[in-house]
Design goal:
11% helix; 14-stranded antiparallel barrel; 2 domains; single chain; 51% strand; mainly beta; 444 residues; Porin; elongated
Length: 444
């Protein structure tokens, strides 16, 4: 059954992993930061610092909070070598986040954040050409992050935090009955030969009574869903030696996941000469994966009171994702697939210009590498290196700041070579994503 399992299961729980940096890691954790290309690790001077660099919250007096909502609209298409174009569903997805900080004393601050670290919605028509690899992949997540920050002195601050991360994933693909039958050709032929048939007769019976009729059957639909809550931790440092420079380092730990899931099937032909129903039946499942650690560096320069420039470098340690172990308690059983993903970097740059006491403007750029090697690329998440160009504005009234930002994400064109054993067709991927964000922050 291994040849069946490989084609069917390669992408089963892939979505929950390819959502982080280079896959579909989300940038909309802060309206102001989006306008600065996501470069905010060294600045970290409002409540959204809980995500970027929690040590930065020691810059905030008393009570501070931030609320953002960020609609995302993708426009991604895949084109086969015949010129046929297939579009990913472009429905709008709204990403919320909420942050709260409180100064406990002259040296300690408490910070709480609720945000969506990753998300995915790659939905195609059920009859599209790549449906045997994937026609629907959806994932949602929520991260609750509690941090304690310590102000060592007027220049240096440290922070430690705990993460409770919850996510839910659903993946759907079609299964080609004739491919299942053909994958079992050796066993079926052995059975026919054992009945006394010669090789030519057995081949004829296989082709006419097994393979040809199975080609007329309806595709089997497989839906895999799973959810899990796991714990992680984070560390952060913020250093501001003078009024002109600030620096930050932030680390989020790797996490081992045992994902509890289930498999559901429909359109499984009953009573056919080949026993599909003994393989594809509803059953629980489990996937074992290790998600990588993330390390962020930031440097900010303030030439005067009106200008700020920041550059960040973010590393995603995807080399920890070398294998994927999946088990489903039906006829598929278990399989281990080799992944060998790469460590990747994301580079961010942004600037802020304070127009007057009420208004500011931001500008930013972000480059994000894809961790997925060509030999393991699939249609669950059509990913490539990404460029993001962004800008934003903010209006301050008293202790409140009302913000709006826009980012244009351009997927770099990527060519996918055919891998017939995994139902991967030769395709060209291109597209863009519109990133919107509005938010309000409060600080004394």
């Amino acid at each position: 059954m291994r040849s069946i399992k490989y084609g069917v299961m390669t992408s089963v729980f892939l979505a929950c992993m390819s959502l982080f940096g280079g896959g579909f890691g989300l940038f909309e954790h802060s309206t102001k930061a989006l306008g600065m290309g996501g470069a905010f690790v060294a600045r970290a001077d409002n409540a959204t610092a809980i995500y970027f660099n929690p040590a930065g919250i020691t810059q905030l007096e008393g009570l501070s909070w931030a609320l953002t909502t960020s609609p995302i609209q993708p426009n991604v298409s895949l084109t086969d070598m015949g010129g046929n174009q297939y579009k990913v569903d472009s429905s709008l997805t709204v990403i919320p986040s909420l942050y709260l900080t409180y100064q406990l004393s002259d040296q300690f601050w408490l910070g709480v954040g609720s945000y969506v670290p990753f998300g995915l919605a790659t939905k195609m028509e059920e009859n599209w050409a790549g449906r045997y690899n994937s026609h629907n992949a959806e994932a949602s997540s929520l991260n609750l992050n509690l941090n304690l920050a310590y102000k060592v002195n007027d220049h240096l601050s440290l922070a430690f935090g705990l993460d409770a991360q919850m996510f839910d994933v659903t993946l759907e693909q079609k299964i080609l009955p004739s491919a299942i039958v053909y994958s079992q050709r050796e066993g079926i032929m052995a059975g026919l030969l054992a009945q006394g048939m010669d090789a030519a007769t057995a081949e004829y019976v296989f082709n006419t009574q097994f393979l040809a009729p199975s080609a007329e059957l309806k595709d089997i639909n497989q839906e895999i869903s799973g959810d899990k809550t796991c714990l992680g931790y984070n560390l952060a440092l913020h250093y501001k030696p003078n009024d002109f420079v600030s620096m930050g380092v932030s680390y989020r730990s790797s996490v081992d996941y045992d994902i509890d899931g289930k498999a559901k099937y429909r359109d499984v032909t009953q009573g056919f000469i080949f026993p599909f129903e003994s393989i594809f039946y509803d059953a629980p499942g489990l996937a074992k994966i290790e998600l990588p650690s993330f390390l962020y560096f930031g440097f900010a320069y303030f030439p005067n009171e009106k200008l700020c420039f920041e550059i960040d470098a973010w590393q995603s340690g995807w080399s920890t994702y070398d294998v994927l172990d999946v088990f489903i308690e039906n006829g598929l059983q278990s399989v281990q697939t080799i992944k060998n993903w790469d460590d990747v970097w994301m580079f961010r740059a942004g600037c802020e210009y304070v127009i007057n006491d009420s208004w500011y403007a931001t500008l930013g750029y972000l480059y994000d590498e894809s961790p997925i090697p060509d030999e393991h690329m699939d249609f669950t998440l059509p990913a490539s290196d990404r460029d993001v160009y962004s800008f934003g504005i903010g209006f301050t009234k008293g202790n409140y700041c009302f913000e709006a930002s826009y980012g244009y994400l351009k997927l770099q064109d990527r060519h996918v070579e055919a891998r017939p054993s995994e139902f991967i067709l030769e395709m060209d991927i291109e597209g863009n994503v519109n990133l919107y964000s509005i938010g309000v922050t409060y600080k004394k």
